[in-house]
Amino acid sequence: MAGTPLYPPSVVRLVEEFSRLPGIGKRSAERLAFHILSTRSENALALALAIRDAKRNLRACRRCFNIAEGEVCAICQNPGRVQTELCVVELPRDVIAMEKAGVYQGLYHVLQGRLSPASGLGPENLRIGELLQRIQQAQTEGRPVREVIIATRPSSEGDTTAEYLAGVLAPLGVESSRLARGLASGTDFDNAAPSSLVYAFRGRR
Amino acid sequence: MAGTPLYPPSVVRLVEEFSRLPGIGKRSAERLAFHILSTRSENALALALAIRDAKRNLRACRRCFNIAEGEVCAICQNPGRVQTELCVVELPRDVIAMEKAGVYQGLYHVLQGRLSPASGLGPENLRIGELLQRIQQAQTEGRPVREVIIATRPSSEGDTTAEYLAGVLAPLGVESSRLARGLASGTDFDNAAPSSLVYAFRGRR
User: Fold this and answer.
1) Going by CATH, does the domain composed of B73-202 fall within 3.30.110.70?
2) Alpha-carbon gap: A171 to the closest alpha carbon of chain B (Å)
């Protein structure tokens, strides 16, 4: 010891940055930092560049607000998807969970959050206005949406969001449904077994 | 599904790069990637830059081959360390483990590996030549090393390395000792409780 700092400043910084990642404690962060130090430069830089490029290249899809590389996401660009069904989810990771389950063939609309009075998040903070516009425009263009599947998470905020959506969708005359509560309350979609997502899709009401 | 890839290319790349880190499986890598996507750009870039700068700024200490920010590491620069004791370890992370235990006040010499016939690593691949030179130079300069503590890991390769070192140190007339085997065979130093490192230092023979 004798006053010597345990790590050089660049290592301290690296450990700190790794510690900020979800699920990475101090000890794991140290292990990751030492891995970076001992791995070949090109491998370490490949991670740094992947992070930088992800932030640079990815944006919200102009139509559905899913993650897109470019203006419009791969799902919206796919003519093989059922164009008259919309599944409304909270976050892009929910789209991934649905796609992994493989039970849904339509399009998505990503709210980019959920109503949360506790965090001061109201309808104006979500992509709800864009959802209503999207449905109305489809009607105007003679290719109306037949069904909106409300797939907010099975939590109290998710339920509040779903009820709010059902309320604003009703005047548009579009049929809406919700995923069956086969999921335990509080479960994240991405922790759910794909099969339980299949049941939830099939049991929607 | 209908042929749509699950992730855009930049996300695939990010998940792949995170998966390469030790102890990070596919699922954790996806979680980390989504964290990067949803976090503010400056936070994500802080990690990318910390990785880049660590590879740019850190090198092996010119004297002991520990990690250094600059030519010479903080321990070698510290005049408060006992200059006549050398603790020989395999890797920089072993130095950290020793320093955390706080039982040793001398200098280090980092071999940057261990003898491993199976991996084709012989004495010429380690910093053993530099160790002998360092000891001889100290003798020449009238500040001889009084004790070399061989602190290779308690594994068969660590033991082989320690025996080899004892053999090449003997002709130099320098006293050498090994850490007591209070540690279970195969334990990494950085998984050992600091107290067991204290016992290992005290019981060295």
Assistant:
1) no
2) 32
